[in-house]
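I am hoping you can look over what I have pasted underneath with an eye to the fold:
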Amino acid sequence: MVYITAVHMEGGERHEHIASVRWSNPADGKSDVSTRATMVDWIKKGGDARVTDGRNEVQVGVVDANPPYLRTFADGKPTDNLLALPRF
C-alpha cells in the first residue's frame, strides 16, 4: 500500500490533468514519483493507493476513460482528495 502525497498537473486542474504523483510506502519507507499511466496500471493489477489527512484515508481508484485517470472514492462515491494535495 502506498500513500499519494502530491500531484503534478498538466493542461488543467481536473482529475484527468494529473500527470504524475508523488507517493510513499510506509512499510519500507520508500518514496518516488510515478506517471499517471504507471499508477493506473499498478492499481488495475491490484495495487492499493490511498490519500490520507493524518486521521482519515480514502482509496484511489481508476476511472476508465480515454485515457484512464486517477480519482479518490469514499463510500463508493467520487471525491476530490487528490486535487486537494500539494502540487510539485
The chain has one domain: 2-84. Residues 63 and 69 are 5 Å apart (CA to CA). The mean pLDDT is 97. The longest strand covers residues 2-9.
